[in-house]
User: Fold these one by one.
Assistant:
Number 1:
Amino acid sequence: MFACVGYAATAADAPLKPFAFERRDVGPEDVRIDILYCGVCHSDLHQARNEWKNTIYPCVPGHEIVGRVAETGSWVSKFRKGDLVGVGCLVDSCRECASCKDGLEQYCEVGFVGTYNGEDRHGRGITFGGYSRAVVVDQSFVLKVPETLDPAAAAPLLCAGITTWSPLRHWKVGPEQRVGIVGLGGLGHMGVKFAKALGAEVVLFTTSQSKVADGIRLGAHEVVLSKDPDAMAKERGRFDFILDAVAANHDINAYLDLLKRDGTLVQVGAPETPLPVSVFSLLMKRRNFAGSLIGGIAETQEMLDFCGKHGITSDIEMIRMDEIEGAYERMLRSDVKYRFVIDMASMPETV
Ligand code: NAP
Ligand code: ZN
Ligand code: ZN
């Protein structure tokens, strides 16, 4: 065991603060990573504040981790000291069920181990995430980050990136398709970039007038202000695929109506309360409403390699660790352009 410092929430209504804890020593299959940067996902905020009603305190959030390998176990073959690596939302799974065998560890039938707030398979209670100086992870759940990418701007690829990449690939989004992305936050802005890179005609739906120009800059062919009923009415029945990345409760039926016959709306945003679905929107045009959870390890590596090849990263605003509460408040106001990333050099060395 070695001593580590992180930032933890201790209750749903308590601000995050410095927290001392221990990490396991490097086992034969493990990689110890000195964390350089950690992205701030809206899920961190949902979890820290117990909005999904399953948080175990103290909770050290953070699942968009980029760092350098500091030590490797004796059986580790994939990584060497000094390598630029990433860790996303998963640090383990059963590895034996049908989903794990299909490389879809996020749908592990036994239950994947989350990078934080997960049940540690190394028998040490609950996992602690990337708002910390270091992490120890089994090599099978560590990703190679292309050295050509800015490591801070690559961090959000580990969750926002893969969560949008996976459904776009699964539903085979590509040329000749009109694709909608709903909500220009961390996930949404990666969705716009990827849908564009995959060759689709991309339409961004946003509630924020201030993000219209950015939507075009990031790759959207058109931007629709979703609060404008006339603009929404013009889009009815025109979409093959829509990816909804909104973090709060909102009217998804307004988007189901925009799908063509047999079109699909995939929900990746995870508001704390259920979203009512109009059955008639679905059955009138045999539309599909689906969900998607992050992505498997192999497809996360595929996404990182694609980003390396095409020079794709996140648009980020760097913060210090002690600015996290302000960043959360800004996320709640949709005032994020387009991912906060914590510079781990700002983490205190002791508590
Ligand atoms: P974020 O950066 O805070 O972005 C969310 C965006 O949603 C906002 O920027 C805003 O965009 C829009 N929005 C917010 N409130 C809204 C409202 N009341 N009505 C309409 N639009 C609203 O969040 P994120 O990190 O991208 O995460 C988005 C959601 O995905 C969260 O719920 C998160 O937990 C979830 N998530 C799911 C997965 C998964 O595996 N499925 C993985 C990661 C995250 P505009 O200003 O453009 O309207
Ligand atoms: Zn996330
Ligand atoms: Zn499994």
Note: The chain has a mean pLDDT of 97.
Number 2:
Amino acid sequence: MSDQFPSSVAQLAAGLRDGEYSSVELTKAYLTRISEHDDALNSFITVCDESALAQARAADAAIAAGAANNLCGVPYANKDIFCTSDVRTSCGSKMLDNFIAPYDAGVVERLNAAGMVMLGKTNMDEFAMGSSNETSFYGRTCNPWDLSRVPGGSSGGSAAAVAASLAPIATGTDTGGSIRQPAAFCGISGLKPTYGRVSRYGMIAFASSLDQGGPMGRTAEDLALLMNVIAGFDERDSTSLEMPDEDFGRLLNKPIENARIGVPSEYFGPDLDAEIGALLERAIAEFEKLGATICEVSLPNSQLAIPAYYVIALAECSSNLSRYDGIRFGHQCENAVDLTDLYERSRAEGFGEEVKRRILVGTYALSSGYYDAYYRKAQQIRRLIKQDFVNAFDDVDFLIGPTTPDVAFTAGCHSSDPVTMYLSDIYTTAVNLAGLPALSIPAGQVSGLPVGLQLIGNYFSEAAMLGLADRYQKNSSWHLSHPSEICAGGPS
Ligand code: GLN
């Protein structure tokens, strides 16, 4: 970022409140930056120049009237999975290319109520199905650290936009790693909250028992600030947690002396790149120096997370996506001869290859005769995976390990082999199966590419986890590194 504007949301909000710059000035600076750099990155599907400036003017008026919330006037990028009543919501799919939702998602209502300024809707894997952003109907997003590489997925547009300073913070969703994995690949911080913390109302469904929205930003402190806006009970989401509001930043800037951190031995096996392993050992030693107690733990069913996830998520997606029938939502084929033809061709034309693959596999796993062999078995394994975490949290407060087995891979290299692609979720999916909170923060670089460190906490431990991450970031500088060729300058 430039001298004129700081890069953290905490500092941006303070500058707005102190009148150092207006929200209109800030918003214009980010919009300019998007127009200069997003042709190269493709991190946005829709940029909202006019509505963003209108929101910024309203925010400036609220700030002047002394009626502003903490993040009033701060710009953000919104993953194109959250329904917005005035802006198209595509979910990265041709199926919803022209879809304008009749209402705002619960998360969007909260962002609007806070007076935040939506710069645009970010690129993503189609219906959030992917680990690379390559399944988007709108073309792949490039990783700002190396344009030939993927930014991760499915919230890759949000991650790339934040990493390249096209937005100071963004929303994402995480069904099996889609906040943490792109955060790791792009060198930013991302939090997947406890299942049920953030409303799924108006968040387009992929796998409902796993989907969870969350913040993506530069620092743990910024994640806490956005969590304070987007988290909270929503009676329109049947799995929303009815808990009192809390300040997710209350444990920032606190010592971590009493933290007991477990290192799962299964996360440091042969699947992990050796250089990443060595970097993480160094980061773990750093936590120890800061006062945490480190010990080894075991999550014996870790290897079963990928197969269980890819049965359960696909089964749920086959059901969730049945609503796209060419009648009520989205793309409709032309000149249908009868109802079956309408269904078949609308879906054949509207969905991309990966989405079709998943609907087919999911339907198969749920079909009579195979339900017991696959779906029921996967649910039983899910229970075992959850129990592994429950057992580990008897002895420790947090778990630490890699977010991904490798750094960002080259675009196209896994396209013909979906199973290899699925294996890049090896350290993230178990958390979703158990419904736990977890975050990824930058902890080093291998060959100039960012490496993510994952912290996993017990249910509802977001504030403590953010406190731990904040302590690490106050004593390290990886979260401050920028990809140089894209970020030279920053808004000015
Ligand atoms: N990469 C995983 C998948 O393709 C996770 C996606 C997600 O979290 N939305 O299913």
Note: Residues 130 and 231 are 25 Å apart (CA to CA).
